[in-house]
Amino acid sequence: MKIENPNPIQWQFSERAQQLQSSAIREILKITQRPEIISFAGGLPSPATFPVERMKAAYDKVLSETGKQALQYGPTDGYAPLREWIAGYLSTPDCKILPEQILMVSGSQQALDLLGKVLIDEGSKVLVETPSYLGALQAFSVYRPDFHSVATDEHGLVPSSLEGLADGARLLYALPNFQNPTGRSLSLERRRELVETCARLGLPLIEDDPYGALSYKGEPMPRMLNMNPDGVIYMGSFSKVLTPGIRLGYVCAPLPLVRRLELAKQAADLHTAQLTQMVVYEVVKDGFLDEHIPTIRSLYAHQCQAMLDAMDEHFPKEVTWTRPEGGMFIWVDLPKHIDATKLLDQAIAARVAFVPGAPFYANDPATNTLRLSFVTVPPERIREGIAVLGKLIKDQL
Ligand code: PMP
């Protein structure tokens, strides 16, 4: 029996909820999913790389052999064999990572939320790159920090710009490998300088690294984590090396912090799906990623090159862009007077889409920037879409 509602609820949302906004990208993606549009907008990995059969076999094996355990509640910190595997994966000869330092999370996006929850109070000073990963800005924003932007140049974050800026800051959030959105990477010297500077200033450094394994040359750069495991918080993800739909990531942090993160996770969702963790352990434990990741790298490298070649051919000389050596994104700087959001309207009318760069800035957005992703579009469509974009840009010069 349905009860009458004589007094309709006047929802009183918390101040926090009133401030929540949908990410600009998710809104754009709704439009760009139409099949006639050549979309360089998405940040989605290529489904061609998803190891469906391998996952299917692993689900089958885990459910047949250890189904009761896989379908039960599990510990908050995660499935122990997988945490051990990750600790081994992150260890180097002179820096051993302990399984106790690893907390499994439901996508590394959850690590951003948990880090915000345990490290940020309202008004806390939080340092981010210019530009930075939009999803991190969104996750931290819930805790109402005061964002300060750290300078970047064509080589990525500029460590010397932290002097003075870091006073009283709670953390620095950095993306050293094939950054989302710019595709830029920090050189080895810059990594060392950054880790040293943060250590000297007593500033916790978050190293968000979902793309590090996708180096086209196949030689991943050293992690900052291994340069200073007491000062660096490392975030990893299975989204770009297996599949994002399983929502599995991890954070590696110094013990006092990881215990706090664990408490925050316990309150949020008890634990990450046990079945998923057991399946991923089954998939990775015998070295599957060593054969799988090179196939992702070569696909992305090929498509990245197709896009760079098309840009060389069709973009006017007034436009500049990054030349990534891994990952999924190219970043474009247009002449100052061109507003990428307006350009997007014209591009969509011409059936091409990208993401304007402005939402990736915590402060002072550069409206003449945009992000292109090449991973889900085949080379001939890349050439077609870039030719259209090049013409639209030239028309505005
Ligand atoms: N960090 C960065 C830099 C990302 O680009 C993404 C996903 N696009 C994430 C974190 C979140 O990844 P996931 O939650 O799928 O692990």
Automatic annotation (TrEMBL):
Residues 51-388 form the Aminotransferase class I/classII large domain. It holds the Pfam family Aminotran_1_2. This is PLP-dependent aminotransferase family protein. CDD domains: AAT_like (cd00609). One of its GO terms (molecular function) is transaminase activity. Its cofactor is pyridoxal 5'-phosphate. The keyword Transferase applies. It comes from the Bacteria. The keyword Transferase applies. Keywords: Aminotransferase, Pyridoxal phosphate, Transferase. PANTHER family: AMINOTRANSFERASE (PTHR42790), KYNURENINE_ALPHA-AMINOADIPATE AMINOTRANSFERASE, MITOCHONDRIAL (PTHR42790:SF19).
